[in-house]
Amino acid sequence: MRLFCDSPVGVLRGCIEIVTAVILCTAGAGLSLGAVRAEEGIRVRNPKKLPAVLTGAERISIGIADDYKPCLARLNGNELLLVGFQTKGDVPAEYVFQYRSTDGGKTWPEREKLDILGREPYLSKISDGTLFISTHVLPTARGNGLGYTFSYLYRSSDGGRTWEGTKILYDDVLRKARKDGKSPDKAPAVTGRNVLQLKDGTLVFAVGSQNGSETLWRSTDKGETWDKTQTCEFDTLDIATYPGSVLQEATLLQAPNGDLLAVCRVASKFFPILPGTTIPKEKTDHYQRIVLYRSRDGGQKWAYEEIGSHYGEMYQSLLRLKNRRLLFTFTMRAAVRPNVPPLGVRAVVGEETPKGFRFDFRHDRIMLDTKTPKDKPSGGGFGPTVQLDDGTLVTSYSYCQADNSLRCEVVRWRLVNERSKD
Question: What phi and psi, each to the nearest 5 degrees, are found at residue 348?
Answer without folding.
Answer: -130, 150
